[in-house]
Amino acid sequence: MADYLVIVESPAKAKTIERYLGKKYKVKASMGHIRDLPKSQMGVNVEENYEPKYITIRGKGPVLKELKTAAKKVKKVFLAADPDREGEAIAWHLAHSLDIDDKSECRVVFNEITKDAIKESFKHPRTINMDLVDAQQARRILDRLVGYNISPLLWKKVKKGLSAGRVQSVAVKMIMDREREIEKFIPEEYWSIEASFLKGKENFDGSFYGLDGKKTDLHNREDVDKILDQMKGSNFTVDKVKKRERKRNPSAPFTTSSLQQEAARKLNFRARKTMMVAQQLYEGIDLGKAEGGITGLITYMRTDSTRVSDTAKKQAAEYITDQFGTEFLGSYQQGKKVEGAQDAHEAIRPTYPNRDPKSLKSILSRDQFRLYKLIWDRFIASQMAPAIMDTMTVHLLNEGVEFRASGSKIKFKGFMKIYIEGTDDNKKEEDKLLPDLEEGMVIETKEIEPNQHFTQPPPRYTEARLVKTMEEQGIGRPSTYAPTLDTIQRRGYVTLDNKRFVPTELGQIVIDLIEEFFPEIIDVDFTVKMEGDLDAVEEGDTEWVNIIDGFYQGFDKRLEIAEKEMEKVEIKDEPAGIDCENCGNEMVYKMGRYGKFLACSNFPECRNTKPILKEIGVTCPKCKEGNVVERKTKKRRTFYGCDNYPECDFISWDKPISRPCPKCNALLVEKKSKKGTQIQCTECEYKEEPQT
Predict the structure, then answer these.
(1) Are residues 229 and 269 in the same domain?
(2) Average pLDDT over residues 628-653
(3) Do 263 and 348 sit in the same domain of this protein?
């Protein structure tokens, strides 16, 4: 019979921890929260200091009964939920439901699920931190007051099923503002002049810089012609050669935000998937008896800190020295703390730095392996020496017209031996060497080519870029990014087009109404201040009731005005210009969970619906009659098929193009990879150079 009961959140974590603690401990899972505010009503008594009404979550009765029975059979119960506000609240609710004194030392926290960390944490149990509980409770009540007051209003005035929330509304507003920037953007013309220089048999490229040592912009063809007219002959003189050594430092280990961004860039993971796989790595993977059984492979994955423990630094140093040599060992400096960051936990890192990804490849699933490798690479790289680059910049003159050429070479790889941080534009670090050049040398030009350009609008947000912007502006916290992005898509406020967010008509209507009647809800400064107020509650500097009351007094008045003045919005169905093949009535565009679709205007008598098919200008290569159209799977993955389906079953995951293969006349498709988009034949070996 066990002497102690330990309650964690998930069964996977329970198995791992029970093995570490031994026979005296029984570990059970609460399966997340046991109590919460009711779904059917507000659950907050505004008249009684915003007192929350908690109930046992539907379906959790049997779990709670099992935990109560187990608690009666032991000497003591330890509550070991996750080490954050949410985990602290879960522990508090469990203490209330199981009649445990929350002032007793019943709370155990750990940042990593390893044998040493678990055993050490049980030597230092503490009381439940009510400041953390109050901060989480304040957030929950605040979101409930906003959601359960504005959402019914939107149901009445716009359509059923809509919702509003503090963080999600700000996120949609950011996406909508960006779309308006793009719509208003007016491209401006500008020019560049590129030159190909020749020194002996060596070619190198340079670009026009300016006149008489001053940077000069080229606005039109006239400006270009003046420059070309001023030059005499095709020879340039080397005016200056600047050589220097540059150090490039490694990136800090991952925070929640930076992990989601990098997993999107390098692994093509959505934020939700990144967190799901990270949770599996944190809670424990069965490595087999020889490797220690169920083992947590990474530290806690909800963090805004880049801090690393001395033990982890030491282990990483031993690995780096052993594998690469002492010259590759760096002295990690913790990154500058982001304003508003809680810094409650370490950075996301491998629990055992010497357990390299290769040793786990046969055990982990493909997604687990790829994410673990990303986390491991980033952490080990953060502990390595800077890379050293030799850079060279050359100034070339012809009658006062200055061109510049630059090149660099990696002198010492350092951390770049195992990891280079990704970028949103997929630019790669490459050696770009220049020949040996000295001042006074005369260099011949092989070619001079003017190029016309136009300024581009700001890019739409990808998931990675939106998470980064939200973090930089202090909107939300690590635990909120993934669910926020998921919610705004499920509600139909935004869609993803080519992995970039686009606001829907419905999203624009909802945000415009909120902006008119509840401007503070989508005000970034207000949202950031509220996050700061919640942090103050966590630090014990202010009472949570005061924060809620300060918000609700003004909000309640705005709610009364909105109830009276907000006009009902009728979202009219847009005619599609085609008739229903079942009943002959007109088909219309409707807005659904996954965006627009075609439906019969005679609904509900006729329930005919069809997806909106996007033609790509390619005739079906199989039936030679239909057109190839873009389609979506249930999981929103894009594929291409014939619009004569099911009569023609042509299908391709790669995008077909209109011209045939020049070698065998078969279908050419676009293959996407990290190197760019490559056109290749579906039948023979024909390939074209990738386009980035």
Answers:
(1) no
(2) 85
(3) yes
Cα distances from 254 to residues 110, 149, 334, in angstroms, run: 18, 37, 12
Q: Are 131 and 137 in contact (CB under 8 A)?
A: no
The tokens describing 142, both together, are: 């605040």
State how far the Cα of 22 lies from the Cα of 10, in Å rounded to an integer. Answer: 18
What residues contact 40, with CB distance under 8 A and at least 6 apart?
none
Query: What is the H or E stretch that residue 488 is in?
Result: helix 481-490
The answer to whether the peptide bond before residue 646 is cis (omega within 30 degrees of 0) is yes
Q: Is the pLDDT of residue 132 over 90?
A: yes
Q: For residue 202, tell me if it sits in a domain.
A: yes
Active-site positions read 300
The pTM (predicted TM-score) of the whole model is 0.79
Contacts for 279 with CB less than 8 Å, ≥ 6 apart: 301
Q: How many C-beta atoms lie closer than 10 Å to residue 85's C-beta? A: 27
Last residue of one domain, picked from the residues 382, 405, 420:
382
DSSP line for 263-304: HHHHH---HHHHHHHHHHHHH-EE--GGGTSEE--B--S---
What CATH number has the domain bearing residue 430?
2.70.20.10
Residue 529 lies in a domain: yes
Question: Looking at residue 544, what DSSP letter applies?
Answer: H
Helix (H) or strand (E) holding 16: helix 11-21
Strands 25-29 vs 4-8: parallel, antiparallel or unpaired: parallel
Among residues 335, 404, 445, 300, which one has the least CA distance to residue 9?
300
Bridge partners, residue 506, by sequence: none
Distance CA 279, CA 11 (A): 12
Q: Which tens digit of pLDDT belongs to each residue from 58-75? A: 999 999 999 999 999 999
| Sign, CA torsion 304/306/307/309 | positive
Structure tokens at 113: 């699920």
With H, G, I as helix, E, B as strand and everything else as coil, classify residue 145: helix
Report the distance separating Cα 577 and Cα 587, nearest Å.
7
Q: Which residues contact 271 (CB under 8 A, 6 or more apart)?
A: 260, 264, 463, 467, 481, 482, 485, 486
Do 477 and 542 lie in a common domain? yes
The per-residue pLDDT for 188 is: 93
Considering the domain architecture, whether residues 448 and 463 belong to the same structural domain is answered as no
**Same domain (yes/no): 160, 203:** no
Burial 400-417 (b: 16+ CB within 10 A, else e): ebbbbbebbebebbbbbb
The helix/strand/coil state of 471 is helix
Please report, for the domain that includes residue 54, its CATH number. 3.40.50.140
- Are the beta carbons of 138 and 52 closer than 8 angstroms? no
Number of structural domains found in the chain: 5
Segments forming the whole domain that contains residue 307: 256-382
Domain identity same for 241 and 269: no
Dist. CA 529–CA 518, nearest whole Å: 16
Residue 296 to residue 13: CA distance in whole angstroms: 8
Last residue of a domain, which of 428, 454, 480? 454
Residue 680 lies in a domain: yes
CA 487 to centroid of chain Cα atoms: 14
Which two tokens mark 432? 């770009």
Pairing between β-strand 76-79 and β-strand 4-8 as defined by DSSP bridges: parallel
Residue 589, Ramachandran bin (φ over 0: left; ψ between -120 and 50: alpha; else beta): beta
**Cis omega (within 30 of 0) for bond into 253:** no
The pLDDT tens digits for 68-108 are 999 999 999 999 999 889 999 999 999 999 999 989 999 99
- For residue 481, is it within any domain? yes
Vertex 686 angle, CA 684 and 692, to 5°: 135
CA angle 361, 374, 289 (to 5 degrees): 35
**H helix or E strand, kind and range, residue 677:** strand 676-681
Residues 31 and 123 occupy one common structural domain: yes
Query: Does one domain contain both 447 and 467?
Result: no
CATH of the domain at 544: 1.10.460.10
